[in-house]
């Protein structure tokens, strides 16, 4: 392996690299990878990473002492929780997220009890832990806005972060083969739908197109299946930039690809599509 890497300008670190059976599990990039007897491979947040996160949480809470409001530590904790859960949301992390929430709750509860030794548990609950919708015991506080006023802020719930599964790319799929263009465009649109930034991009394209399909020119209505299409195919050098994307009905998208000629034109014009 070292020789193979050397031929490609890479060097194997013998101090960091080791060969280990996957059945026993091993940590890689903050996650534990383990193969089970049924052949299934699962990734979970590594125990070491969970401990490091909770140590950082404890440092933020204890660093607050008895001064200031609860808003500032909540702001700092939310940044930690959001970053950590965003990284691990694609693994089997639901139980770990719930465990992290429980540990953070106990740390905050002890902080409140130390801060208000003369107050009852009922008073602490009423002051710091509110109800938001279906969530109860939500740690809350206030922060200052740009005008000097106060704004409410609540602690982010790690278990409330949705787990997103990666759909495996087909082994024979080639992004530079025109035959697979439709497949990768469908994956691109699914990826855009899964994030706030991606949904904003879809909304931008919809407004730019006047709410109409780039193929048939009819309205793109809610409840219909839409897809993103490259004006210039990726196999011909096109990219995923918004200037190279347009929204189509899913059926129109399939028809356009089925009518594309083999001359390398990149796409069929709207006029040719409508006449067909």
How would you describe this protein?
This protein has 276 residues and is an alpha+beta fold. β5 (135-144) and β6 (150-154) form a beta hairpin. The protein has a 3-stranded antiparallel β-sheet with strand order 1-2-3. A 3-stranded antiparallel β-sheet has the order 4-5-6. Strands 7-8 form a two-stranded antiparallel sheet. It has helices spanning 2-6, 47-64, 71-88, 94-115, 121-128, 181-193, 196-208, 250-259, 270-275; strands spanning 26-28, 31-35, 41-45, 129-132, 135-144, 150-154, 226-230, 245-249. 41% of the residues lie in helices and 15% in strands. 18% of the residues are buried.
Domain count, please report it: 3
Helix content: 40-55%
Termini separation (Å)? 55 Å
Largest sheet: 3 strands, antiparallel
Sheet-strand content, in percent, reads: 15-25%
| Spatial shape | extended
- The strand order across the widest sheet is 1-2-3
> In DSSP terms, counting alpha (H) and pi (I) runs of 4 or more, how many helices?
9
- Cα gyration radius (Å): 26 Å
**Runs with pLDDT <50, length 5+?**
263-276
Element-by-element helix/strand order: HEEEHHHHEEEHHEEHH
* Derived structural class: alpha+beta
Number of strands: 8
Name the average pLDDT: 85
């Amino acid at each position: 392996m070292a020789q193979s890497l050397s031929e490609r300008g890479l060097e194997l670190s013998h101090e960091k690299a080791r060969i280990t059976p996957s059945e026993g599990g091993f940590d890689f990039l903050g996650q534990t990878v383990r193969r089970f007897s049924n052949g299934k491979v699962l990734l979970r947040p590594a125990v070491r990473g969970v401990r490091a996160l909770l140590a950082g949480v404890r440092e933020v809470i204890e660093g607050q002492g008895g001064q200031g409001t609860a808003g500032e530590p909540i702001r700092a904790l939310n940044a930690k929780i959001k970053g950590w859960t965003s990284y691990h949301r694609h693994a089997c992390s639901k139980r770990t997220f719930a465990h992290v929430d429980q540990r953070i709750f106990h740390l905050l509860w002890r902080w409140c009890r130390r801060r208000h030794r003369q107050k009852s548990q009922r008073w602490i609950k009423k002051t710091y832990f509110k109800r938001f919708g279906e969530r109860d015991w939500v740690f809350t506080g206030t922060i200052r806005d740009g005008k000097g006023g106060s704004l409410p802020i609540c602690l982010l719930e790690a278990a409330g972060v949705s787990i997103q599964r990666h759909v495996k790319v087909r082994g024979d799929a080639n992004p530079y083969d025109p035959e697979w263009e439709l497949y990768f465009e469908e994956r691109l649109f699914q990826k855009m739908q899964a994030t706030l930034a991606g949904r904003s991009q879809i909304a931008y394209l919809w407004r730019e197109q006047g709410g109409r399909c780039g193929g048939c020119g009819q309205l793109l209505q809610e409840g219909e299946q839409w897809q993103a299409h490259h004006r210039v195919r990726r196999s011909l050098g096109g990219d995923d930039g918004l200037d190279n994307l347009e929204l189509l009905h899913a059926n129109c998208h399939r028809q356009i690809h089925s009518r594309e000629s083999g001359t390398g034109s990149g796409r069929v014009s709207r006029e040719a599509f409508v006449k067909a």
